[in-house]
Design goal:
The complex is a heterodimer of chains A (660) and B (303). Chain A is mostly helical. Helices cover 73% and strands 3% of the residues of chain A. In chain A, the strands form two sheets. A two-stranded antiparallel ribbon of chain A has the order 1-2. A two-stranded antiparallel sheet of chain A has the order 4-5. The model of chain A has no long low-confidence stretch (mean pLDDT 93). Chain B has one domain. In chain B, 70% of the residues lie in helices and 1% in strands. Chain B contains twelve helices and one strand, in the order ααβαααααααααα. Chain B starts with a helix and ends with a helix. The chains are: A mainly alpha (660), B mainly alpha (303). At the A-B interface, helix 15, helix 16, helix 17, helix 22 and strand 3 of A face strand 1, helix 3, helix 4, helix 5 and helix 10 of B. Strand 3 of chain A pairs parallel with strand 1 of chain B.
Amino acid sequence: MGAFLAALGLVVAGGVASLLTGRRWRSRVAVAGIAAGSLCGLLAALRVLAGAATVALHVPWRVPYGSFSLAIDPLSALFLAPLFVLAPAAAVYGGRYLEEEHGGGAIGGVWLFTSLLIVGIAVVFTARNGVLFLLAWEVMSVAAYFLVTFEHHRDEVREAGWTYLVATHLGTAFLIAMFLLMARAGGSLDFDRMRLGQASPALAGLLFGLAVVGFGTKAGLVPFHVWLPEAHPAAPSHVSALMSGVMIKAGIYGLLRVLLLLPPPPAWWGWLLVAMGLVSGVGGVLYALAQHDLKRLLAYHSVENIGIITLGLGVGLVGAHAGLPLVALAGFAGALLHVLNHALFKGLLFLGAGAVAHAAGTRDLDHLGGLGKRMPWTGAAFLIGSAAISGLPPLNGFVSEFLIYLGAAAAALTGRGATLAAAVAGGAGLALIGGLALACFTKAFGSVFLGDPRSPHAAHAVEVAAALRLPMAALAAACVAIGLGAPLVLTGMTGVLAQLAQGFGLPAPDAQIATLRSALAWVALASLTLLAAVALAVLARRFLLRGRTVTAAPTWGCGYAAPTARMQYTASSFAQPLVDLFRPVLRTAAFGTPPSGAFPGPASFASATPDPVDRGLYRPLFAGAAALFGRLRWVQHGRIQLYLLYLVATLLILLLWKVR
Amino acid sequence: MNWAPLLLYLAAIALAPLLGGVIAKTKAFFAGRTGAPLLQGYFDLAKLLRKGAVYSATTSWVFRAGPVLSIGAVAVALALVPMGGTPAPLAFPGDFLVLAYLLALARFFTVIAALDTGSAFEGMGASREAQFSALAEPGLVLCFFALARNADALSLSAGLGALSPGAWRSHAAVLALVAAALFIVFLAENARIPVDDPTTHLELTMIHEVMVLDHGGPDLALIEAASWLKLWVLGALVVGVVVPVRTGVPVMDGGVFVAAMLLLGVAVGVVESAMARLRLLRVPQLLVASGVLAALATVLISG
């Protein structure tokens, strides 16, 4: 616990010191603090994952229902690990990024809020008391708000900040309600002393529903995701990486933690999570396909990946309820491993998107192109991230999806009725998500890095500084390492899986873990064989081409001799068939004037896909609420005398109520 | 040591181009032509392997990575496929997922290699390939689910190994559904009519062929070899379901399997001669149908 507290202290100290120091040192002290703190924190987390006993700290606290209790059990450690891996990478990147984008000058409190965000997330992952949890939750959410609105001189950034702030607080309202109910029914808000095992099914269902809405808002599950595609693009890229890579996982963590406190889950909880996971997964990737803005596209992919994680949890719960331990363990293991993997590849992709935006001055896919030659390092790292997020072997995205698939397949072996339906839907859904993600990331990578530049900005882009490349390279290496070393990673998850198995009333999972580990070892073998086969093919081609003529020529254009970069397929045209196919869901709007007549004049085309949930659900809802509350506007008139009267009246009423 | 899987693996690599020759010969027969020789695939490979290379000046290393990754991925995928009742060289729980995603890996790199040329034609083909394969994926995975449920085992070798002529008597409906779904995926993934026409002359209407327009020489040879192998990989699954002959003698089983593969080539040739290509807008319906058939099969099997 000492190392963990030191980690918190170092991170905060770095953030505070950056406010107090001069311009030259501002970023350096903060980065140093975050890096040193993350190292301590990572050590603490790894020690627990390696099998050390749960460490805990309990300090009395004079807050109703509150106590300052922290503990790192395997579940906490598993979520802390990606935080403390991604945080230093994002900080090193951010230090240089802010300096280049903003001259190191007006970076205000960005480092203070970054360190508060990291500490907030770390405490959320370790808090063992509801009040402390909510407090850390708020620190995390509000710090993220200030980071999202960092470029607050831009209208759309302020707008995005508002959307985020409203969404996160609505979500928190559900959590407050949930914790209050838990405190009343369980007798305490200390997680270790809360007794909810005998809660009635209705109460347990209510608590679960509140948790899904509250935590789902933070995680970005459809239909609570609308803040995500607004806030992620608005924030500086290293902050987007932290938010998308780790902060939204707080929602998944919270859901799991609360599930462990509640009585054994009835069947419908699992079905609900499977359904929500599928909707988020397919919906997220479809909306991503329709986007033109690279960071917005990545943000929608966070919705998709949260969907995959939720699907894994759902498969786990379905398996636990049906008494199929292998299904349960595969689902949970896949979901948890995907939490880690998504932090790595999504962090990498956001950092890459930041590098692209920095070098080319735009994030619009239809104005980029050809950056692979100009930015070879960024291109290679982005390619690894793209293949990983598409779930392709031999990278890390594949192994976690493999486990979830395996859970679904195992459920399809013997399941009946709803279990079988969940398994079939899960398998088919994952396959569709995987195929669409492949389409989306070939589009993203292809239109940014391949072909010829579609604009002068892209043509003049140059590779970013080493301080920006290094974090990307490290994260890309981690993606490969987890892809090939998955059996070892699963060994590191033994403690968590045992904890979950115990929590959901399953027998000790040693046999299932051994089965999964051997499957993953086979996968690793297949991956290594793949690498060997590819290396062999490369050598064969080199051998064949030795001494032969290898020349360069223009791309084949069916005989047309004067091609221009504008004739290339754009990201929009690439995605058009799929976007058209899913028009009923996406409702993409097209504008512009098509060419007409035998001698067409100037023509134009533009398309936009605003979030349909936002447009169809929240905007009418909030407009209605505004109209309703507008009727109360007479209370707010600006006369200070009457405000004082309100105060006196309130006090009087309270006094009367108390002495009654 | 059991050499049968390894021998069958090598036989598959050696015979894969012949399958293409059988398809072409069948089509020539229906068209009343003599057609190219049965061994044309081998001649093409030999010719391409002797050539130098011309790379588009627009392309980068990604373009060169496409062919080698395709052949590597498909070669490993072939090692996951059981042939003629013999378990595959690589057989383990969940191997079918690795198979599906290795094919996806090959596709990913073929698509980005096409985009690397900056050609609108290749972009168009890449876009269609990405669209159709995304829709074909659920069908393929659900077929594997159905086979796993039928055999109560999580590996493809066990799934196909559990089938026998007797299974066709007791579970005819289910197996027919799986076979139909697999056959659709097989045609779609291998750029065959009714989804794609490998012999079309017009770039605008191609899918797979247009993506590899700019490849030549040894690169094109690798791509051609990869597509023959992919035809064999998915074809072996169809044959494994439709002709689950078990004589108990490995040589006989292997012989029956190879003969069935060549018959499958004839069947593809018949389909290609008898059918026109579907309009591109109709293809998704066909692919969704394969997913529905496979889902139905999974549900119909009593666990």
